[in-house]
Amino acid sequence: MKSLLIILLLIISGTYTSLDHPFHVSNTEFNYNQTDKNLEVICKIFTDDFEKALNIFYKQKADFSEAKLKGQMESMVPRYMKSHLAVSINGKWLQLSYLGYEIDHESVAVYLEYPLNELPKTIEVQNTLAYEAYDDQVGIVHFIVGGKRISNKLVYPEKSLKFEF
Questions:
Q1: What is the three-class DSSP state of 2?
Q2: At a CB cut-off of 8 Å and minimum separation 6, what does 96 contact?
Q3: Which tens digit of pLDDT belongs to each residue from 115-134?
């Protein structure tokens, strides 16, 4: 199990390169920046998997490599993220702000944030990234508070995880 998790992390981080990857996985990291009082979020998902999910969800072409679709992608990505990723801190659901995305090797990194004045103690994450595209989708979720990291995973059709600090 541990070796599978390492392989999945290598794939998402871009260390493992293959045009046809055998795993469908997203990696979402929530980091509470205590100094800035900000919840910082980075979601990474394989570019081709993300495009397929966007194609199915919006029923229109999604392609991160086509310059003429850049405006369309800038519109699709934040709406998709809002409908597929949610977080509740201490019983309150947050409206994450979309900061942008960038292509990172064979994946897309999506950046989100939320100003958060209180220390996260109870957390619920709902994550259905790429669920419409793959019935073997895995969502790895990390939550970091005060330097302490807790990680877990969702395997399709699971949608929700809980963390406590």
A1: helix
A2: 39, 41, 81, 82, 85, 86, 87, 112, 113, 114
A3: 999 999 999 999 999 999 99
Distance, in Å, from the CA atom of 113 to the CA atom of 97, rounded to the nearest integer, reads 5
> Considering only CA atoms, which of 147, 143, 141 is closest in space to residue 129?
141
pTM, rounded to two decimals: 0.87
First vs last C-alpha separation in the chain = 24
Q: pLDDT band for position 104 (50/70/90)?
A: confident
DSSP H or E segment with residue 66: none
- Give CA–CA dist 41/57, Å, rounded: 22
The secondary structure element, H or E, covering residue 8 is helix 2-13
Residue 25 has phi, psi (to 5 degrees) of -140, 145
